[in-house]
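cron nightly-structures :: item 1 of 1
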Amino acid sequence: MSAASSSSSPSSSPSGSSPVSEPASASAASRAPGSPAAPEGSLLTAYDLHKTYGTTPALDGASFSIHAGEVVAVMGPSGSGKSTLLHCLAGIVPADSGTITYQGRDVTELSDAARSTLRRTDFGFVFQFGQLVPELTCLENVALPLRLSGTRRKEAERIALEWMERLEVTDVRAQRPGEVSGGQGQRIAVARSLVTSPRVLFADEPTGALDSLNGERVMELLTGAARSAGTAVVLVTHEVRVAAYSDREVVVRDGKTRDMDHYLGGGQGLGGAHGTGGGQGSGGGQSAGGGQGTDRGGRGSGGRGRVGRAA
């Protein structure tokens, strides 16, 4: 998404003032002692996160970074800690220890109220089941974040319609969520998540409740719209076909993270050999999906080394 063009996004501009909008040069003063500097140019970075529920560790030294305009898939089996990582990154739940840096400042130092403001102004969210308000029309659902931020109804609905057009759901704008298909409902949820032009979009299993055809269309529209708006996307999924739409993958296992860019075709992977499955690709073959992959706009359906073979 670093190649995103802001000129192609709808006319709503990114939220003006952010509670953590200090430049990256200010990060040294706010960084916890012993934590490394965030990767150059990173928008959101986490280092050595730990989170325990009762006696069960959910995160055990997890680290993560994402740049503006980048789509990063967070993969792993059920119970691996990937959703907990997303919730910590988004400030929904606090980590027990570690640092989370957004635009150069440690988010863990913010008050609950400041984190809530950050989520409203800078972050967008898409969940597996959409979480639309059933009493509102689809247009009203998409416009809701703008209305809550004080935008007048007419202007909010104008911007909402622009996003609905991009997500191909203007034809159901007057219907309520219970009157549309699952694929349409999820596209409405995506439009709602992007209507405020967030800097980071957190998508937790956004296609988990959809069939493969609808899931692929939602991912095409979600990543296309986010990239054109310059929005970073943290995409939690356990499906390789969904991760294929990302720029890179981070695998979570037993609360620990591994960036697959370091392991495809040569690095020591989670399986103890050259990939997560113990072969040269994460599926044990010559590409991330175990074969050459299917070409889709520079990426195949198998993963990051998706078109052609992993190096």
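cron nightly-structures :: done
DSSP finds eight helices and ten strands in the chain.
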